[in-house]
Design a protein that fits this description.
heterotrimer; B: 394 residues; alpha+beta; MetI-like fold; 12 helices; C: 259 residues; alpha/beta; six-stranded mixed β-sheet; four-stranded antiparallel β-sheet; 9 helices; disordered C terminus; binds adenosine-5'-triphosphate; binds magnesium ion
């Protein structure tokens, strides 16, 4: 028999186990092969990193605005010539959008940054501290003030209406006040649509007669706001914000970016370009491919043979061919399939191609999520008396989509990177602009700068998005809500 | 007591009968799709007629009249469009298969390094993956081709590795074997060694089964496969020689020249795809429960057999399906060759040929069919593999 | 501390840290040949860590462990020798899911003991019969119940003819009925004179077969006694508390399924 009466204290680990030395030993030099690997890694780092840094930062030229600033009197430049990028930054960002009109893109950007920033910061703060939603209100405030200060009264009003709406709507619940139709959803939808369309049309007519382009945009915005407002009762500000981003923001962008009213000159899509164009294609691509993909996925799991066969053949066909061939098809064959005289503009063709292509991929991602939902969920929902679309919309899809957030993000990142392919059908995205910039005889030979710059731009966006989605995924882990 | 509302419920009605509903919906959708397709077909026929383009595949026999920079089969300006198709197809297959091999090897290496206990090395592998997979492939292809390979100096100032491999603006020049008469002996020796090696492995297995004694069959048959052809090579008086590249005048003579387009494409495709494969490999190995390794160790298995008998078979089930789909993606991505003028199928056939003949419908259809066939073959393989390795569960 | 005459496992002043965390504090334990030792203690007390050090699934940083006269160091040969003599059972079985029951059993005999295949099969069949599942030999682990899987795991260990078996809560992932079928096999094994070191909270089993009970808490051995003495009159306050808890739990279990 043995009994120990005193408890012994915890001791610190032996010297070789702790501290820097212990860490080094455990992680870098635990055995001979390991030490060799460490040395090889170090050698590779030393071989590649310093020359790159020297080129990109230390010897680089940032000043001046002409080629001569970069080149020593004789021979080649030792470092990167970022001046080359600097003088073209406008083109790279906005394409050939007229300089006087670029504020429209800026405004759209500010709206997106403010609304998106609020959503992102909200989830980041909640993940980090569990609260702090108050602070996120700074985003819309900054957005409104910035728009007012930079662009004037009318744009400021648009920003104000758009950015302040969610919080007002979520508090005021005008839906119930206006209609009192809360218990009849179908009728409610029709009423919302009717009221919104009516109000929008009236406003647009009034403003249109007065020749106010931006005001037409405002009335479109108003109409969509009314529509959402009527359905906003009982929803949180965040979810209203989300539906605004999906439903209203595109309307604003369409009116704002394309223009065509008297005080907003039309900017033809042929002049769209640069990072702006990339984001437009990516935005439209995700906004159409996700819903279409969901429909295709449901079609593929449908019990109706015709629907199933059509969905399967579309999905498998698209997934079996390269995006380039789909883009060729859209740019060469699409015009052929239309009656003579009907013209589809180049951007629209690319959008159709990219969206169709990625909806097939989205469909497969969503299908994975649908398959992961146990049968019991369908049965429970049906047992509650829900019909097919309600079962899907209220019970199955919310769970399925949540499960496949990583897949959706990956597909979206693929889409974002693949927008570069539109350069092949001669759209002026960031690569198209770089190509024409490199062909400029006054600036020959700065190819590395060009591609490194574009690479960094894409990298920052893609890496940021993938990290954000990882965070979102962690936050939405089943069982947390 | 009957509820009047309930009594009014129909026994059967066209509108609420699920079967009838399903039929109506399907007919409607089908009619819609068929209608759109028919509309497109009619318009296309009309448009083509107006443009004076004869449809059909007659153009396959017409003379192409343009040059192609790289071809695995004989080709000249006087060849037909049919030949162009073949050249493009072979070039696509060539660049894809070389890239697949490189990407897979590199991807496995990076994936394993990512998992290594060495902090520095695993961080470096992570950095590789995160940089490469977050930059568009097209950009990477252009980077290698336009920013790195094109500005290289000419052959006279070529960069060289041990004076046998050269890199210059003509591309990558590597040594290549030439086969003189007598080479067949080496080939025969090689085949014999293969057969012998296989026999050795079978014999060793049988012996182990019966007696438990082990024989290093794989190592020794590898030795056999290397040594026997070498012996034959010496016996036949070295009929196979390395053709080393050598600078003569303004260009290299001898060796094999990999064009810059090909080199850039292989580099970009394999570096990019390797990043994704590395992630698949990592996920696959991490999917094997740690307890499996502990159980194997506690049974007395050494790390190497543990890896081979326990970890790899389980990890491969997870790795192979996404790996094959990466390969498929790579084949499809090889079509980006068109941006740097590597003469692949899309570039010479769906590009040049289409522009010259205007037969958009036929050419795009054929091109898509080729890729569809490749995809189908790969997914058939995947289904077969999945069915073969499916782990039985209750 | 009791020192058996013919020790097979000797643990002397063993200390182990996870980072800064001191998991094992100056552990001393000697197990004799043929002896059956049960280790118990609250969760996180270091029981698993201790027995995993015995076949070097974990490394200790101070002190010595020797098994059948072989001291465990970094040397691979020594680790090999020890692992051949020591079998281990895990809480979650850790059968190889890609191999059939038979293949699971013959893997180590063929690759470690270099046994002819047929002989290994015969041996495996013999042990599968002993754990009463000869008819499942060609199934995959995924097709078996938990109790059956754990019995396969026992057969898999026995195929290596180990001198010592380590058990890490072999029944805690099982339903009551299955617990019994696994414990029966373990009792049977104890009867055959195997040296057993067993982390378990099955007190019936401990009373029936154990020669000694070790109580651990906070990384140290607090008490060591015969099962009768330990269960009837634990000496340390901590052990009394712990026993009280598992007893009340066991009684609740007994009340809800009376059999
Ligand atoms: N790999 C590890 N790294 C860091 N700490 C660990 C690790 N493994 C175990 N620990 C910690 O060491 C302590 C002892 O763990 P151990 O698994 O030995 O406990 P245990 O007595 O077996 O508990 P249980 O009854 O829950 O199995 C625990 O506090 C645990 O959190
Ligand atoms: Mg434990």
């Amino acid at each position: 028999m043995y009994v120990k009466r005193e408890r012994s204290p915890s001791l610190p680990p032996p010297r070789s186990e702790a501290g820097v030395v212990g860490w080094l030993r455990a992680n870098l030099f635990s055995s001979w092969p390991n030490a060799l690997m460490t040395l090889a890694g170090l050698a590779l780092l030393l071989y590649s990193l310093p020359p790159f840094l020297k080129w990109a930062v230390i010897d680089a030229n940032w000043l001046g605005d002409s080629r001569e600033g970069c080149l020593p009197p004789l021979g080649d430049a030792a470092g990167a010539c970022w001046v080359f990028i600097k003088v073209r930054l406008g083109l790279l960002m906005y394409g050939f959008y007229p300089e006087a009109e670029r504020w429209r893109i800026d405004l759209a950007g500010i709206l997106l940054a403010a609304a998106g920033g609020q959503l992102v910061a909200g989830s980041l703060l909640r993940a980090a501290t569990g609260r702090g939603r108050r602070l996120t209100g700074l985003f819309p405030l900054a957005g409104v003030l910035l728009s007012l200060a930079l662009f004037g009264i009318l744009p400021g009003l648009v920003a104000c209406a758009y950015l302040a709406a969610p919080d007002i709507l979520a508090r005021a619940r005008p839906g119930r006040l206006l209609l009192g139709l809360a218990h009849r959803p179908q009728l409610h939808l029709a009423a919302r649509l009717g009221l919104a369309a009516g109000a929008g049309a009236a406003l647009a007519l009034g403003f249109g007669a007065a020749g106010q382009g931006l005001a037409v945009a405002l009335s479109l915005l108003a109409a969509s706001l009314i529509f959402i407002a009527l359905g906003a009762y009982g929803q949180s500000a965040a979810s209203v914000r989300f539906s605004l981003l999906l439903g209203v923001y595109p309307v604003i962008c369409y009116a704002l970016l394309l223009g065509g009213g008297l005080d907003l000159p039309l900017v033809d899509t042929d002049n769209w370009g640069g990072l702006f164009l990339t984001l437009v294609i990516a935005g439209v691509g995700i906004a159409t491919s996700l819903p279409v993909g969901i429909l295709l996925a449901l079609g593929r799991r449908s019990r109706m043979p015709v629907i199933k066969a059509l969905s399967v053949s579309f999905i498998e066909f698209i997934r079996g061919v390269p995006l380039i061939s789909v883009l060729f098809m859209a740019s060469v064959m699409l015009p052929l399939t239309l009656p003579a005289g009907m013209h589809v503009n180049k951007l629209l063709r690319a959008l159709v191609g990219v969206s169709l292509f990625y909806s097939a991929y989205m469909a497969e991602v969503v299908r994975g999520g649908l398959q992961a939902i146990p049968r019991g969920q369908y049965e429970a929902a049906e047992a509650l008396g829900l019909r097919y679309w309600r079962v899907m919309r209220l019970v199955i899809l919310p769970q399925a989509l949540r499960l496949v957030i990583p897949g959706i993000t990956n597909t979206f990142l693929g889409l974002l990177k693949d927008t570069t392919l539109v350069a092949v059908i001669n759209l002026m995205d960031i690569l198209g602009i770089l190509k024409s910039a490199l062909a400029d005889t006054r600036w020959l030979g700065f190819t590395k700068e060009a591609y490194v710059f574009a690479g960094v731009v894409f990298w920052v966006i893609c890496f940021g998005l993938s990290r954000y989605s990882m965070l979102l995924e962690k936050r939405l882990k089943p069982g947390r809500n | 007591m009957t509820d009047p509302a309930r009594a009014r419920l129909p026994q059967r009605s066209l509108l609420t009968d699920p079967v009838v509903r399903a039929v109506i919906i399907q007919i409607a959708v089908f009619a819609l799709v068929a209608g759109v397709l028919a509309f497109a077909a009619v318009n296309t026929a009309e448009n083509l007629k107006r443009a004076g383009i004869a449809s059909g595949f007659g153009f396959f026999n017409q003379v192409a009249g343009f040059d192609v920079s790289q071809s695995l089969v004989e080709y000249s300006r006087a060849s037909t469009y049919g030949r162009v198709f073949l050249v493009g197809l072979l070039n696509t297959l060539l660049v894809s298969s070389v890239s697949i091999v490189v990407a897979t090897v590199l991807g496995f290496a990076v994936g394993l390094l990512r998992l290594s206990g060495n902090w520095l090395v695993s961080r470096m592998a992570a950095v590789y993956v995160e940089i490469l997979r977050n930059v568009p492939l097209l950009l990477q292809i252009l980077f290698w081709y336009i920013a790195i390979l094109n500005p290289l100096p000419g052959p006279r100032q070529a960069m060289s590795l041990f004076d046998t491999i050269f890199l210059c603006n003509r591309g990558l020049i590597i040594p290549w074997p030439v086969f003189l008469p007598g080479s067949w002996l080496v080939l025969v020796a090689f085949l014999l060694a293969l057969a012998g090696g296989a026999g050795l492995v079978l014999w060793a297995r049988r012996r182990q089964r019966l007696t438990g004694k082990r024989f290093p069959a794989y190592v020794s048959s590898l030795g056999l496969i290397i040594l026997l052809p070498l012996v034959a090579l010496a016996a036949a008086g070295f009929p196979i020689r390395w053709d080393l590249p050598e600078l003569s005048g303004f260009n290299f003579a001898g060796g094999l020249t990999l064009q810059p387009e090909f080199t850039a494409l292989v580099l970009a495709l394999s570096l990019y795809t390797a990043a994704f494969i590395a992630e698949n490999v990592r996920a696959g190995i991490e999917a094997v429960d740690k307890g499996q390794i502990e159980a194997a160790h506690s049974l007395g298995l050494r790390p190497a057999p543990t890896m081979r008998l326990v970890v790899v078979p389980q990890a491969l089930r997870v790795i192979i399906p996404p790996l094959t789909s990466q390969h498929l993606t790579l084949v499809k991505n090889s079509s980006l060759a068109v941006v740097i003028g590597y003469p692949d199928l899309v570039s010479v056939f769906a590009g040049t040929t289409l522009n010259q003949t205007g037969q958009a419908v036929e050419i795009i259809a054929i091109t898509m069919l080729v890729y569809l066939t490749i995809s189908l073959a790969i997914s058939l393989f995947m289904n077969w593999y999945n069915a073969r390795v499916a782990i039985l569960e209750r | 501390m009791a020192i058996p005459d013919d020790p097979i496992i000797r643990i002397r002043h063993v200390n182990k840290w996870y980072g800064q965390f001191h998991v094992l504090k100056d552990i001393n334990l000697t197990v004799g040949r043929g002896e059956r030792v049960v280790i118990c203690g609250p969760s996180g007390s270091g029981k698993s860590t201790l027995i995993r050090c015995v076949n070097r699934l974990e490394t200790h940083q101070k002190g010595t462990i020797s098994v059948d006269g072989i001291e465990l160091t970094d040397d691979l040969k020594r680790i090999d020798r020890v692992r051949r003599e020591v079998g281990m059972l895990f809480q979650n079985f850790n059968l190889f899911p890609h191999l059939t029951v038979m293949e699971n059993c013959i893997l180590a005999p063929v690759w470690v003991r270099r046994m002819p295949l047929l002989e290994a099969r015969e041996l495996a069949m013999q042990y599968l019969t002993r754990v009463r599942i000869p008819d499942q030999a060609d199934k995959y682990p995924g097709q078996l119940s938990g109790g059956q899987q754990q019995r396969v795991a026992i057969a898999r260990c026995l195929c290596m003819s180990p001198k010592i078996m380590l058990f890490d809560e072999p029944t805690s992932a099982l339903d009551p009925e299955m617990i019994k079928e696994v414990l029966d096999v373990m009792v049977d094994l104890a009867g055959s004179g195997m040296t057993m070191v067993c982390v378990t909270h099955e007190m019936g089993f401990a009373r029936e077969v154990a020669d000694r009970v070790i109580f651990m808490d906070g990384g140290e051995i607090l008490e060591e006694n015969t099962p009768e003495a330990f269960f009837s009159a634990p000496q340390s306050e901590r052990a009394r508390l712990f026993l009280g808890q598992i007893l009340s739990h066991a009684q609740m279990g007994a009340r809800t399924n009376p059999d």
